[in-house]
Amino acid sequence: MILEVIATTVDDAMTAENNGADRLELITAITEGGLTPGIGLVQQVIKAVNIPVHVMVRPHSRSFVYSETDVATMIAEIQAIRSAGAAGVVLGALTPDGKIDEETLGALLAWTGDMQVTYHRAFDELDDQFEGLRTLMKYPAVTRVLTSGGPQPAPQAIPQIRRLVEEARGSHLKILAGNGLTWESIRDFIDQTGVTEVHFGSAVRYGRSGLKPIDPVELRSLADSIHQ
């Protein structure tokens, strides 16, 4: 079982590693769903921890529909993140009619090299997630999908997430479940969905607030629960 934790600072990253996180998603603007962090932060986090660091590549929070200049910006960010030594990137793009934007996805993947690629929660805006999953299966560079099974929190979409896990079984894709999870109920969630990776943000912070630092006691409780 892999525990991915959101980090927004170097201190977050070190606290996460020291208290049981297996991987980091490094972002800024947590209250906007995560945007690309500055390259200085990326470099310092990679120096500070030994666990894999996956970096958000999202130029703005207006939508997941991107212009040519947005895509050029994202490519430049991917190049810088790759040069910094990150283990992966987190990205996604949609067409105006709400499907996976394969043209943009292909343009971005051309620059990811051997980094892992997570398709982020743009996936949760798709009308047909199973069609979307089959689309992503055409791209070996995409290694996982971060999803809550739709627009609602993940605990409210257990049947959908279980179906996504079953659909992805045997492929190169893993389902990374996130949004609305808590350490108190995580074992039941894992048992009911069959996921092998989970993603936590505000639920492991003081007061369960995205704008607070990571609470080592909350995170350790979570890590002990899912790694038992």
Description:
With 228 residues, the protein is of the alpha/beta class. 36% of the residues lie in helices and 16% in strands. Helix 2 runs parallel beside helix 3. It contains 8 helices and 8 strands, in the order E-H-E-H-E-H-E-H-E-H-E-H-E-H-E-H. The protein has an 8-stranded parallel beta barrel with strand order 1-2-3-4-5-6-7-8, surrounded by 5 helices. The model has no long low-confidence stretch (mean pLDDT 97). The longest helix has 17 residues, at 68-84. The relative contact order is 0.15. It is globular, with a radius of gyration of 16 Å.
Discrete helix count: 8
Q: Could you name the ranges where pLDDT drops below 50 across 5 or more consecutive residues?
A: none
Largest sheet: 8 strands, parallel, barrel
Mean pLDDT: 97
Measured as a percent range, the helix fraction is: 25-40%
Q: What structural class do you assign from the helix and strand content?
A: alpha/beta
Main β-sheet, spatial strand arrangement: 1-2-3-4-5-6-7-8
> SSE string, helix = H, strand = E?
EHEHEHEHEHEHEHEH
Oligomer status: single chain
Please report the distance between the alpha carbons of the first and last residues.
9 Å
**What is the beta-strand fraction?**
15-25%
Coarse shape = globular
- Count of extended strands: 8
* Rg calc: 16 Å
